[in-house]
Amino acid sequence: MDGKELYGRELTRSECRSADEALLALTEKRPGLVSANGKLTCARCGNQERKKMQVAPCSCGAACQYCLSCLNMGKIKSCTILHHLPETNSFAWPQEPILQWKGQLSSEQNRASEEIVGTVLCEGTRLIWAVAGAGKTEMIFEGIAACLGKGGRVCLASPRVDVCLELAPRIKQAFPAVPLALLYGGKEEGYSYMPLVIATTHQLLRFREAFDLLIIDEIDSFPYHNDASLQFGAQKSRKKASALVYLTATPSVVMQNDIKRGKLEATVLPARYHGFALPEPECRWVGDWRKAINKKKTARFLTLIRRQLQKKRRFLLFLPHIQLMEELDGWLRELFPDKHFTCVSASDPDREEKVKRMRAEEYDFLMTTTILERGVTFRDIDVIVLGAEDRVFTEASLVQIAGRAGRHKDFPTGWVCFAHAGETKAIQGAVRQIRSMNRDAGRRGLLNGPVSVLPK
């Protein structure tokens, strides 16, 4: 390990790998657990909750306290020393042009892009509240280029590995001459010092005052939105003078209130880049679908699946729980032996390959948990949510899932069905939010035509 690999990082001794003692002697050091306002605090993740601190015998010979909040990133103990070298932005790459993307932004995308550039230059904070399929990734290109162009370091972070894997090739294609690091848990390649970083929000815990621009995609996504430690890590990874851009289609109520009170600058885009309305979900009562799966009884939801297969319309079938999905998978193989389909979840080691095969149109449909609710795009797809009343499907989750349909400019429409055993506030709220965005887009003259009438 050379000194560059510690620039803007904060690591334990074991994480410093092969660093020699001479290099470590040059680092800034601080205890892993410190006292802040009279409370024992984890310096890496900011945890102060006593119930998330534990005591155990330690190899140092004492009984050390350690942090449970960021334990999955390695143990931070009372005797832990964190090592850090200040960020120097020691990069070199061809100066012009940094951005090689040749596409064209819509007028709304261009407005957002210009406001992002302004935020970067004034080192401010901005929320980009854009409907699913608005083309958020393309909007951030000029902002990234503006930061890199002045010698800055950029990180694009997301709570989900799938989103990072989706973003990496698109960012690399737009900035082919800029070295890029992709960081997520379980990645085999080690860390290298790069000016452009794509990382899960967990990985930000290992950075300290590194980035001149931090962009967090899908901020409302699990686990970031309700994890104070991940939010602390994101703030810790930024330089004191830096820009912060949030991206989401479904901001929290807290963020929406901050916008209303003038505490947070926001750019709102209610329309997709291709100018077609968001598909408005059809809510269909399907009775006790769980019992039907368990007993392999005739079920109303099978009519929806048969219709899609007969029309040769590829679709995503979302379910709330892995066990139910696997049971349904077995039953559907008996009912439709000649059809090609599979299921994916967060625990599936072949998830990435299966998603690629779905994109290649090798499957008639793909069953999935909420792991594919965001960050993935298919060219021409419909969506069915089976068990939409389950508490797993929040309002934000349902809005994101509905946003999988109609994303591509060549296939800008799609059918979305919330199949349920009883409507919930989340279902009603999701439909209301989608309709509200369509109305706003229509009033502003951003739609190519009227909202499509849902099939009955």
Q: Layout of SSEs?
A:
Blueprint: E1 10-11, H1 21-25, E2 28-31, E3 33-36, E4 39-42, E5 53-57, E6 63-67, E7 81-84, H2 107-121, E8 125-130, H3 136-139, H4 141-149, E9 154-158, H5 161-174, E10 180-183, E11 196-200, E12 211-217, H6 228-237, E13 238-248, H7 253-260, E14 265-269, E15 282-285, H8 289-295, H9 300-310, E16 315-318, H10 322-335, E17 341-344, H11 351-359, E18 365-368, E19 382-386, H12 395-402, E20 416-420, H13 425-443
Parallel strand pairs: 8-13, 8-14, 9-11, 9-12, 10-11, 12-13, 15-20, 16-18, 16-19, 17-18, 19-20
Antiparallel strand pairs: 1-7, 2-7, 3-4, 5-6
Helix pairs in contact: 2-4, 12-13
If you had to describe this structure to a student in words, what would you say it looks like?
This protein is α/β, with parallel strands linked by helices. The protein has 3 domains: 3-84, no CATH class; 107-269, P-loop containing nucleotide triphosphate hydrolases (Rossmann fold, 3-Layer(aba) Sandwich); 282-443, Rossmann fold. It contains 13 helices and 20 strands. Strands 10-11-9-12-13-8-14 form a 7-stranded parallel β-sheet. The radius of gyration is 24 Å and the shape is globular.
CATH-assigned homologous superfamily of the largest domain: P-loop containing nucleotide triphosphate hydrolases
CATH topology of the largest domain: Rossmann fold
The largest sheet is: 7 strands, parallel
- Strand fraction: 15-25%
Percent range for helical residues? 25-40%
Overall radius of gyration? 24 Å
CATH class of the largest domain: Alpha Beta
Termini distance? 63 Å
Report the count of strand segments. 20
Structural class: alpha/beta
Spatial sequence of strands, sheet with the most strands: 10-11-9-12-13-8-14
Number of helices: 13
What CATH architecture label of the largest domain applies?
Answer: 3-Layer(aba) Sandwich
